[in-house]
Design brief:
The complex is a heterodimer. By secondary structure, chain A is an alpha/beta fold. Chain A folds into five domains: 6-174, Rossmann fold (3-Layer(aba) Sandwich); 180-241, Orthogonal Bundle (Helicase, Ruva Protein, domain 3), CATH 1.10.8.60; 246-359, Up-down Bundle (Zinc Finger, Delta Prime, domain 3); 420-498, DnaA, N-terminal domain (GMP Synthetase, Chain A, domain 3, 2-Layer Sandwich), CATH 3.30.300.180; 511-543, no CATH class. Chain A has helices at residues 6-9, 22-33, 51-63, 77-83, 101-110, 133-144, 164-167, 180-194, 200-210, 214-228, 234-241, 246-258, 261-274, 278-298, 308-316, 323-342, 346-359, 366-376, 381-387, 394-397, 404-407, 420-437, 439-446, 467-475, 477-488, 513-526, 528-537; strands spanning 40-44, 90-94, 121-126, 150-156, 171-174, 197-198, 231-232, 448-454, 457-462, 493-498. Chain A is elongated. Chain B has three domains: 3-192, 3-Layer(aba) Sandwich (Rossmann fold); 196-232; 234-361, Up-down Bundle (Zinc Finger, Delta Prime, domain 3). In chain B, the strands form two sheets. Chain B has a five-stranded parallel sheet, sandwiched between helices. In chain B, strands 6-7 form a two-stranded antiparallel sheet. In chain B, helix 5 (117-128) packs parallel to helix 6 (148-159) and helix 13 (269-295) runs antiparallel to helix 15. Chain B is elongated and about 75 Å long. Classes of the chains: A alpha/beta, B alpha/beta. At the A-B interface, helix 10, helix 13, helix 16 and helix 17 of A face helix 1, helix 5, helix 6, helix 7 and strand 5 of B.
């Protein structure tokens, strides 16, 4: 004979056996007592929490020989027939397979007959969200005003896929996820009945793995019993579920601290040979980093879900990472997890991710940076950022080939200087360069010229009528300074002034209005016609 | 084949054998794990063991039941796998035969194979009949390829199948299926194979020379199906192409376009995917090598392309900067685009452009 799995064997038979859904079962029991049965119910909620079970109990309670009663006897012919799903009055329909309008029409045909021998004709439609739109609409009229003694019970995990017109015609019950504690209690009870010895920790692992679903937990328990026999240890569960040893995660964070990439590659190959699931590993690593985060933020391991030994380790290492670093590490892991699921090259990506985590530069804390600034009274913020070495790890900090400081092209230092003459000579080149990235700013600067330079303070001259340009320059001062810094490697304090002398800018491309005026006057003197026009119309040079 | 001939996977084997021994069999199993780890192979063996007249925990492979199940000729044994719409019966039979012969590297139906709701309805109809022998076993391979409707219509029967019916689902992407499917099955997780297991299996079953076997094992990353595919192909030529492709990356657009055309004439989509996979491995090696240089370590043992040390070294030294993160992301994206049927020339041209940007030459 075939073996019946626990989830089916222990399917509750009474309202009171249903775990964790009192808000549903009480309401239904009261409705039965007061004879206020609605004509349509909708049960929604996550998988494996008891929707179909409650629907069946409800059917038995209504059609029981003693009924309607809140405690179906499970002994009369009606109850037995329903339990064996061969009752003539209770139809359990698989909504996902019978989802078309034709099926609904057939169903409506059957509504005309009165229930025999029971009291109610009950239609349980499971997975109702899979009905087609037409099928739903064909149900509407029936659902609103069904013949007396007809009851619909819909069960679904995805109530949002059910049209609003259906929802409004049903009494809706939302089933809750089960808490870890509830599942543990129920499993412990079940093990007692099955004569199985099981460790508390093993029960916890199973309950956590089930993620709020009773059926999932029973499936896992089933598997474990088949595997381990009558005594179940926490170790056995861990091995069976492929739960990753916490030690491995600590090794990763240790490596991040020491910055040893080669050891990271070796660790990755160990993960491969242990046969762990890669994305599972990433999820575990994120959990691990999150634990660090909690300990770093709260200063105590009380809030994390881990063994006492691990808690001690978290506490001991709570200063190893800053909160910012932990968040960045977690982000990398989260991105990688996604990739690991999709890619055919998962192994390579896991390895690369571990290397990436290890090589990640520590972020410099803003407060530390400000302190440094205060001490040095250094006006060059950029210099401070680049030169201030990441505080950790000591051995690797200097040699890191990809460090930003080494990559920045002109090494900025206090000694770097530039003269006014040099600046004047390079000004056209500079403005052209700026034009490439910031057209407006470049155009603005091309009508200006460097005026004076002392103590790294640069005055930029503009023609007197260009007051507007000066204010735009002031508004964009930071940017101009940064651009100049990028080009020259010197941090200059820039300010714009009106240059009354109206000096000719060194930029040959830029033609000043005053130039053109002079040109025009010259032209007028030489050319008779133009001179005549000027005289006749009393013209004035504008542009 | 019997259980022994399935590579690795000690844990799943043990779980199933214990369940067989105690006859505490769950009515629905879900074999999950990466591609090429032997899920379908073990599912077939499990079915054989159930039917086998010796009634042990292993199929005997001698009796007529074992043989008939193994050749998919038993009326009580049903093997469903994704098929394109309107597949001819002969074609389907041919594909199924290839599974029976070599479950690791079966013929891949094309294009866009799915498991439709009609298939599941048919399955439901069959399940109402009494099996000829004691049991009925249904394997649904690559269950994630079920359409949404098909998956949902499987739910009821998956929860409470008729007595003596066993369903085994297999999938490498189980999370794309509704959680309701998952929760009705007992999950048995398959690990990716280790390099050791893949190379040993290649040496023992295919007579591959150990050095080559090790290299293939490193490249396929635990996927035995791909390892078998690589045996059919010219690995050295592919690796040569990697270097060639990277060289072209640094040349002018015209040369690149010419090369794209050449590549397209040489490789189809699947081969191109393999090639891009090799590029990923190449850059991984360069990254490790550069690290080794920076710290004066000998990293030879962890390199995949260890036999091309010189080329690797030259490549690594040629560049001032290599944006590894970006390169991995770009190549991976290109692989994804191949799967999504983007035009090949487009993918390659874009890839060349992007690679060029992330490779900064010295001087």
């Amino acid at each position: 004979m075939s073996y019946l799995v626990l989830a089916r064997k222990y399917r509750p038979m009474f309202f009171d056996d249903v775990v964790g859904q009192q808000h549903v079962t009480h309401t239904l029991q009261n409705a039965i007592r007061q004879n206020r049965i609605a004509n349509a119910y909708l049960f929604s909620g996550p998988r494996g929490v008891g929707k179909t079970t409650v629907a069946r109990i409800l059917a038995k309670a209504l059609n029981c020989d003693q009924g309607p009663t809140v405690t179906p006897c499970n002994q009369c012919s009606s109850c037995i027939e329903i339990n064996e799903s061969r009752s003539l009055d209770v139809f359990e329909i698989d909504g996902a397979s019978n989802r078309g309008i034709d099926e609904v029409r057939n169903l409506r045909e059957g509504l005309r007959y009165s229930p025999t021998p029971g009291k109610y004709r009950i239609y349980i439609i499971d997975e109702v969200h899979m009905l087609t739109n037409e099928a739903f609409n064909a149900l509407l009229k029936t659902l609103e005003e069904p013949p007396p003694q007809v009851l619909f019970v819909f069960a679904t995990t995805e109530a949002h896929k059910v049209p609003a017109t259906i929802l409004s015609r049903c009494q809706r019950f939302d089933f809750k996820r089960m808490s870890v504690k509830k599942i543990m209690e129920q499993l412990a009870e079940l093990c007692r009945q099955e004569n199985i010895e099981i460790e508390e920790e093993a029960l916890r692992m199973i309950a956590v793995k089930a993620d709020g679903s009773m059926r999932d937990s029973q499936s896992v328990l089933d598997q474990i019993i088949a595997y381990a026999g009558d005594t179940v240890s926490a170790q056995g569960v861990a091995a069976l579920l492929g739960i990753i040893d916490q030690q491995l995660f600590f090794e990763v964070t240790d490596l991040i601290q020491s910055g040893d990439v080669l050891a990271g590659v070796r660790l990755a190959s160990r993960i491969f040979s242990e046969g762990y699931d890669y994305s599972e590993f990433m999820i575990g690593l994120q959990e691990h980093l999150r634990n660090f985060l909690v300990v770093a933020a709260t200063g105590s391991p009380a809030e994390i879900d881990a063994s006492e030994e691990s808690k001690g380790r978290y506490l001991a290492q709570k200063d190893a990472f800053s909160v910012e670093d932990l968040l960045r590490l977690t982000k990398i892991c989260a991105d990688a997890e996604n990739l690991l699921r999709r890619s055919a090259n998962a192994r390579l990506h896991l390895e690369v991710t571990i290397v990436k985590l290890i090589k990640l530069n520590r972020s410099v804390r803003l407060s530390q940076l400000l302190e440094q600034l205060d001490v040095k009274k250094n006006p060059n913020l950029e210099t401070g950022l680049a030169a201030g070495p990441p505080p950790v790890p000591p051995s690797a900090a200097v040699a890191k080939p990809h460090s930003i400081a080494a990559a920045a092209p002109p090494a900025p230092s206090a000694g770097a200087k530039i003269t006014l003459a040099e600046l004047e000579a390079r000004w056209p080149e500079i403005t052209d360069h700026i034009k490439k990235t910031r057209i407006a700013l470049g155009a603005l600067l091309s009508e200006s010229w460097p005026l004076s330079l002392a103590d790294n303070r640069l005055e930029i001259g503009f023609a007197p009528h260009n007051g507007f340009s000066i204010s735009s320059l002031e508004a964009n001062r930071e940017q101009v300074q940064t651009l100049l810094f990028d080009l020259l490697g010197v941090r200059l304090q820039v300010s714009g002034v009106r240059d009354a002398e109206g000096r000719v800018p060194k930029n040959p491309n830029a033609v000043l209005p005053s130039d053109r005026k002079r040109e025009f006057e010259k032209l007028a003197e030489e050319n008779e016609l133009i001179k005549k026009i000027v005289d006749t119309f009393d013209t004035e040079f504008l542009k | 084949m019997s259980f022994d001939r399935i590579i690795g996977q000690e844990r799943p084997k043990k779980i199933l054998q214990r369940a067989l021994a105690s006859r505490h069999l769950h009515h629905a199993y879900f074999f999950t794990g990466p591609e090429g780890s032997g899920k379908e192979a073990l599912a077939i063996e499990f079915a054989k063991a159930l039917y086998c007249s010796s009634q042990g925990v292993k199929p005997c492979d001698q009796c007529s039941l074992c043989r008939r199940v193994g050749q998919f000729n038993h009326p009580d044994f049903l093997f469903l796998m994704p098929m394109p719409k309107n597949t001819a019966v002969e074609e389907e039979r041919e594909i199924l035969d290839s599974v029976a012969e070599q479950p690791y590297s079966r013929k891949k139906p094309w294009p866009n194979p799915t498991i439709s709701i009609e298939r599941i309805r048919e399955l439901r109809r069959i399940s109402m009949l009494k099996p000829l022998e004691l049991y009925r076993v249904i394997v649904i391979a690559e269950a994630d390829k079920m359409t949404d409707e098909a998956a949902n219509s499987l739910l009821k029967i998956l929860e409470e199948p008729p007595p003596n019916m066993y369903i085994i689902l297999t999938s490498s992407r189980p999370l794309t299926l509704p959680a309701t499917i998952f929760s009705r099955c007992q999950e048995i997780r398959f690990s990716p194979l280790t390099d050791e297991q893949v190379s040993t299996a290649l040496v023992q079953t295919k007579g591959v020379e150990p050095g080559a076997a090790r290299l293939i094992a490193r490249i396929v990353q635990g996927n035995f199906a791909r390892a078998l595919e690589w045996l059919e192909e010219d690995l050295e030529e592919r690796r040569e192409s990697v270097v060639e492709l990277l060289r072209v990356c640094l040349r002018d657009p015209l040369a690149q376009i010419e090369y794209v055309e050449e590549l397209q004439s040489r490789y189809d989509r699947r081969l191109l995917k393999d090639l891009l996979g090799l590029i990923l491995i190449w850059f991984r090696d360069v990254q490790v090598l550069r690290h080794g240089h920076a710290y004066g370590l000998d990293v030879r043992e962890v390199l995949v392309n260890a036999d091309r040390m010189e080329t690797l070294d030259k490549f690594s030294r040629a560049f001032a900067e290599i944006g590894f993160d970006d390169i991995f992301a770009e190549v991976e994206r290109s692989i994804e685009w191949i799967d999504r049927n983007v035009q090949i020339p487009l993918i390659l041209t874009v890839l060349f452009m992007r690679l060029q940007r992330h490779l900064v030459l010295k001087g």
